[in-house]
Amino acid sequence: MKYEELIEKHAKKVIEQIVTGLFNQDVIDVRFDYEDPEQWSVVTLHLYDEDKELSIRLHTGERYELYFGYYDDEDEFHDLSKDLDEEEVKEIPKGLRKALAKVLEDEQGIRLPGNFLSK
Prior knowledge:
This protein is of the alpha+beta class and 119 residues long. It has helices at 3-9, 11-23, 86-89, 94-106; strands at residues 27-35, 38-47, 52-59, 63-71, 77-83, 110-113.
């Protein structure tokens, strides 16, 4: 399966992979980022052994985005993104959605224990 198809047609599986990966970490960093005029909060799962980066972003206006970055065989970085629909957003645990909203509102990152997602 190509990465484009994975992001477009199987976003729920990618979200599940991100949440599972974050749950297994000791600490989750929810960061604030911006690129004028856009602002967003983001949580990222790095898969170093596969040279991949998976993120969930919350933009202003309650727009959630799934982000996927990877290196190809020639060591070039590619990124894909997809705006999440309402059903896909429901796959993100409520606690994580609240944390993303708080970071976006405060414009300041937070650090949470990995088991935060189990509550």
